[in-house]
Amino acid sequence: MLENKVAFVTGAAQGIGYAIAKEFAAQGANVALADYNEKEVKEVAKKMNAEYKGEIWPVVADVSKSAAVDKCIAEVVEHFGKIDYAINNAGGGILKPFAELTDEDFNKTVNVDFFGTFYCMRAEIKQFLKQGEGSIVNAGALGSIYNPGGMGAYNAAKNGVIGMTRAAAVDYADKNIRVNCVAPGLTKTPLNAGGFLEKILPTVPMKRAESPEEVAKVYVFVATQATFMTGQTILSDGGVSVGLKG
Predict the structure, then answer these.
(1) In this structure, what CATH number is given to the domain that contains residue 16?
(2) What's this model's pTM, rounded to 2 decimal places?
(3) Domain assignment of residue 245, yes or no
(4) Which of 30, 24, 158 is closest to 91 using CA atoms?
(5) What is the bridge-based pairing of β-strands 6-10 and 30-35?
(6) Other beta carbons within 10 Å of 244
(7) Which residues are catalytic?
(8) Strand partners, 86
(9) How many CB atoms lie within 10 A of CB 14?
(10) Is residue 242 in some structural domain?
(11) Max Cα separation, the chain?
(12) What is the number of domains present in the chain?
């Protein structure tokens, strides 16, 4: 159990981030919920505080802005005194065929998924160096290995996340700081609404989508239990990456 531990989760107001926050809370941790949507993150925190023993604390942050991330991390540390586990989950993307991507499309996707992760990692690692330890799990994507098309900006950002994960892992492995990545497959989230899930489902060997609760357990395990693992990207994809089955 994770009593007296502090987990920091970005993009925590819905989807996978919310499921990760709940999994940490279910194991007894205090959880800082970070999201750009102030109303939703406060509502989620209120709901979780009524359900779990640990403290659930909301903080507003737009991860695409460096100063906002630094301020967010400082607020969490001031409130809880530390951060033990950081889950950089916030993300999203504009899906279009490659040549149809505008500068705005590409920049918007990369600013959240790539730069947002970078800003969070940098601030978290600085805090972990002060503490003498810490664990980061970044959100990758199956699209970094296999994609159905129309994911150029998203893939560029998520491949960058994998590269940053490996680089930081090597830089700080001897400082008791672990940095890993989890790459979910087809998951039932609001971002996959609008027919995308149904379109891709036939290619999944397990013939079903992953629930946010399933992949949340992977994130929390990697963050808390895989204590000799660093620099790795763990796929939770129902078998897609090892063989398509249409």
Answers:
(1) 3.40.50.720
(2) 0.94
(3) no
(4) 158
(5) parallel
(6) 12
(7) 154
(8) 8, 136
(9) 17
(10) no
(11) 51
(12) 1
